[in-house]
Amino acid sequence: MELAMKCLWTGKATILSSAAALAICTAPLAHAQDATIVHVALKDHRFVPAELTAPANKPVVIEVTNQDPTPSELESKTLRVEKVVAGGAKINVQIRALTRGRYRFFDDYHEDTTEGFLVIQ
Amino acid sequence: MLGALIIVFREVIEAGIVVGIIMAVTRGILGARIWIATGIAAGVGGAVLVACFAEAIANAMQGIGQELFNGSILAVAVLMLTWHNIWMASHGRQMAAEMRQVGEEVKSGSRSLAALAVVVGVAVMREGSEIALFFYGLAVAGGSTAASLILGSILGLVAGCAISALTFLGLVTIAPRYLFRVTTVLITFLAAGLAAQSVLFFQRAGIVTALSQTAWDTSTILSDTSLFGRVLHTLIGYSDQPSYMQVVVYGLTLAIIFTLTRAVVQTSGVNTTKRSGTHVDHAARTAF
Fold it and tell me: For testing the chain A interface, which of B209, B252, B268, B271 should be mutated: the one with the most A CBs within 10 Å?
């Protein structure tokens, strides 16, 4: 039992310390400073505009303004995004530096009508 | 209606599987059902709160509140599963061998149950908050289709409960002597998968920036948004486009839980062989 507890604490300590190490070895939010900011609105369950452009190899911040009264969830597999935006609210979505391409995103609650693309040039 | 059913159903799959596994893990332990029910109730309550404060959470911490919140509660679930596995490795076989224990044993038993109740609560809360938001959207939108959408959503919820039942029934058909081994392995992979999801939220928040490239893309072979993909996503943490960091965290979590559980099983196995030589005892020692 004693040893079990000891191992237990070592286990927690290991996980916590590796989490701490991760946090330290990465620069929090350094990212946001040199990022390209693009804007998109959600209106009548459509993205306006439906196509955004940003340069390659630089982090991107998508500022989403939800002009609908209902909540939406901005989701994208390729951009690795899944973030809720409440009705009438505004969120910032941080995206890693990307290579050229056309990346699809959508509203998880209305995937059939609500899709947009981030074009990286 | 079908659309609503599918949206709700795919949100509840993960929580459904987690609840099913934990019901199987704690089967026969005194008071387990109450703890699980408490976990579900707390999860539902938490989900409604999270949905109500979605905007405030999103705006907290300079706009990364939502990511930090999700990443943190998942990390808590990983710790709880780790703790449970290690605790089971040292005590599980005694509990399974003699269900009614007294004093210290029962106390620590309920501590382990509390840990699992937290895991249930986290799983229900995360997915439940999205369903609550979806319902809210339906209510706000109103209109003649709302009723059929709500019916679809309820059917989706029922289907999610069926997933719980199937997982549970599937697991309990496993002979008791193997069940412990199976659930130990299941929980280890479940925890690793949750750890990989957790770190993804910290990556989304921009807090973890290293190793952000995509390690592989198997979305054309098996999409993790398909039904089978989602089940695998929950069970073993399958992801069709993980980042390298997620792969590293997944591997590390597996290694840590595996090593700790094994260390505990081997040490405590020596002390208790004299006391009980049951199947479960044997299973516990050979689980890893």
Answer: B209
Quote the minimal CA–CA distance from B205 to chain A in Å: 7
Separation of alpha carbons B97 and B280, rounded Å: 7
Residue B143: per-residue pLDDT: 60
Give the bridge partners for A52, in sequence order. Answer: A118
pLDDT tens-place string over residues B41-60 = 999 999 999 988 888 888 88
Q: Name residues whose C-beta falls within 8 Å of residue B241's C-beta, 6 or more positions apart in sequence.
A: A77, A78, A80, B214, B216, B217, B218, B219
Closest chain A CA to residue B203: A96
* ipTM of this complex: 0.71
Residues of chain A contacting residue B54, judged by C-beta atoms under 8 Å apart: 71, 84, 86, 89
B64–A91 CB contact, under 8 Å: no
Helices (H) and strands (E) in chain B, counts: 11, 0
State the distance between the two ends of chain B, measured CA to CA, in whole angstroms.
46
Q: Which chain B residues are within 8 Å of A1, Cβ to Cβ?
A: 90, 268
HSE (side-chain half, CA atoms, 13 Å) at B14: 30
- Which residues are within 8 A (CB) of B83 and not within 5 positions of it... i.e. 6 or more apart? A8, A11, A12, B112, B115
Residue A109 and residue B54: Cβ atoms within 8 Å? no
Structural tokens at position B167:
């997982």
In the predicted structure, residue B63 carries a pLDDT above the cut 70: yes
Q: Least CA distance to A70: which residue of chain B?
A: B137
For chain B, the average pLDDT equals: 83
C-alpha to C-alpha distances, A45 to A74, A109, A111, nearest whole angstrom:
12, 10, 10
Count of residues in chain B: 288
Q: Which residues contact A111 (CB under 8 A, 6 or more apart)?
A: none
Cβ distance B204 to A23 less than 8 Å, yes or no, reads no
pLDDT digits (tens, 9 = 90+) for A2-51: 444 444 444 444 444 454 444 444 444 444 568 899 999 999 989 999 99
